[in-house]
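Hi R.,

Here's the chain you asked about this morning:
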Amino acid sequence: MRIEAIQTLWSGCGEIVRIHLDDAKISSIIIKNIDLSATKNHPRGWNTDRSHLRKVKSYEVEQEWYSKWANQCDTYCRIPKCYFSTNKEAQKLILLEDLNPSGYPKRRESLEINEAKTVLKWLANFHAIFMNSTPDKLWEVGTYWHLSTRPDEWKEMTESKLKSKALEIDQLLTNCQFKTIVHGDAKVANFCFSNDYMSVAAVDFQYAGGGCGMKDVAYFLGSCLSENECERHETELLDYYFEQFTIALSNKQSNLDAKLIEKEWRRLFPLAWADFTRFLVGWSPSHRKLNNYSEKMSEQALNLLD
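And here is the predicted structure, written out as C-alpha cells:
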C-alpha cells in the first residue's frame, strides 16, 4: 500500500489522499479526511465562528449528498462512487472512487470553448435530473456564496448599487419558479476530464442545494474562461447549455416544459453573475474574476431590476 497526498482542504481542515492498493479489485481509492477540531487559518483572513460553522455544515451536506442523493446521477453527470463515510465528533472520513483509473485523469485550470461545452452538458444533465427536488438535508439554498451565509463579506463592500440591491438579486434567484439542485461549487478545478476531454466527472459537493441552475453555469464559465472569451461566446455557450438541458429533461422529466424553464433562467443569468460578483467584491476586491465582463453583467442585472 502506498499513500499519495493530493491536496490540503480549505483552511487546513484536513486533506485528500490517494491510497494505492496491493492485490485488490481496485487499484486505488481516494480518502477525504476532515478535521474540524482545531482553529484553522483562513487563506484570506475570514476566521470567524460563522465561517467555521459554514464549513462544518458543508461537510455534513457532502456526506448527506453521497449517502442519499448521489445514486440519482447517471453516466451523463458522472460523479465518484462513495464506498464508505463516517463521523466521529469533529472527524469525518469519506472514501471515494479514484476517478483517474476510471477514465478521468485530466485536470485543468482553463478550458477551450469545446471543452467548456463538455462541462455545460454535465451541468445540463445534472440540473435536469434534480428539477423540482426538495433539497432535504442539503443547503436550502445552494452555492457557497449565498447572501444569507455571507453577511460579513457584504458588510465589507463599499457603498454601491450592487451592495444596496444585493438582497433583491438574491431573492429573485432564490424565489425563482423553476428550481433544481445546484452543485454549488462548479468551478473547473472540481471537474475531472477524460484524456480527450469529451467526458467529465465532478467532485466536491459541499455546497449542493436548491436554486436556479444559472448559478452553476455563471460560476463555471467565470472559472475557466477569460473575460474576452465570456464576452465573445456567451450566447453560443448559453444556447448549448439549454440545448443539452432540453434533451436531458425530455429523457428524465418529460412532464416539465423546458422552454418555460429556459425563458426564466436566461433572464436570471446576469443576476446569477452579479450575485457571485457581489460576494467577490466583499471577500476579495482585487480578485482576478472582477473584470470588465463581470462589471458588465452586474450592470445588466441592475438594469433589469430597474
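One quick note: The mean pLDDT is 94.

Cheers,
M.
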